[in-house]
Amino acid sequence: MDHIHPLSQAIINGKRKLVPDLVQECLDAGETAQFVVEERLVPGMMVVGERFKNNEIFVPEMLIAARAMKSALAILEPILVHDGFKPDFKAIIATVEGDLHDIGKNLVSMMWKGANIEVIDLGVNIPAAKFAEAVAEHKPNIVGLSALLTTTMPAMRDAIDAIKETGHPVKIVIGGAPVTQDFADEVGADGYAQDAGTAADLALSLLKA
């Protein structure tokens, strides 16, 4: 991607106030909402994810980019719904029971949206039974579980067990400060996302496998 579109660049730089006008310019130029998402927003968020992964930017910059992305989606999502556009995949994401932290979850949610995945965010402090209910109701392709506290890691295991008991074939990804690949293997998760930057690549590699 030699030439970065101004909208992609605005997402990368977190220029939230510029984004709505740039989105409108794209639409006025005849680009469909789907095209704007796939060719303008996704490349921008992929650059953000890559830079985060390489320690070129950190959580504050990720949050600013995510907010810029959100301001674009606020305009585009109603158009996409009206046009009958369907994202490639559907995800459920939440922080597990006993844990009220949501920054990491919110960043992953934005990265997934940026990768053309529909995200149903259940929120924080979600018990295992709620995960199972949501999976049975929404039939997602992937579920993301987040935990920031060591004390809430057992709740992750409970949630994974409950999700598997539904019998719905779904990929499960976990992440958060105390979580490791070993723990992911131990509890039967399909993947471990070290950070929000790797979460989109991980999800897509699992979903397209």
UniProtKB/TrEMBL annotation:
<keyword id="KW-0479">Metal-binding</keyword>
<keyword id="KW-0170">Cobalt</keyword>
<dbReference type="InterPro" id="IPR003759">
    <property type="entry name" value="Cbl-bd_cap"/>
</dbReference>
<dbReference type="Pfam" id="PF02607">
    <property type="entry name" value="B12-binding_2"/>
</dbReference>
<dbReference type="GO" id="GO:0046653">
    <property type="term" value="P:tetrahydrofolate metabolic process"/>
</dbReference>
<dbReference type="InterPro" id="IPR006158">
    <property type="entry name" value="Cobalamin-bd"/>
</dbReference>
<dbReference type="InterPro" id="IPR036594">
    <property type="entry name" value="Meth_synthase_dom"/>
</dbReference>
<dbReference type="GO" id="GO:0050667">
    <property type="term" value="P:homocysteine metabolic process"/>
</dbReference>
<dbReference type="InterPro" id="IPR050554">
    <property type="entry name" value="Met_Synthase/Corrinoid"/>
</dbReference>
<dbReference type="GO" id="GO:0008705">
    <property type="term" value="F:methionine synthase activity"/>
</dbReference>
<feature type="domain" description="B12-binding N-terminal">
    <location>
        <begin position="1"/>
        <end position="88"/>
    </location>
</feature>
<protein>
    <submittedName>
        <fullName>Corrinoid protein</fullName>
    </submittedName>
</protein>
<dbReference type="InterPro" id="IPR036724">
    <property type="entry name" value="Cobalamin-bd_sf"/>
</dbReference>
<dbReference type="GO" id="GO:0046872">
    <property type="term" value="F:metal ion binding"/>
</dbReference>
<dbReference type="GO" id="GO:0005829">
    <property type="term" value="C:cytosol"/>
</dbReference>
<dbReference type="Pfam" id="PF02310">
    <property type="entry name" value="B12-binding"/>
</dbReference>
<dbReference type="GO" id="GO:0031419">
    <property type="term" value="F:cobalamin binding"/>
</dbReference>
<comment type="similarity">
    <text>Belongs to the methylamine corrinoid protein family.</text>
</comment>
<feature type="domain" description="B12-binding">
    <location>
        <begin position="88"/>
        <end position="209"/>
    </location>
</feature>
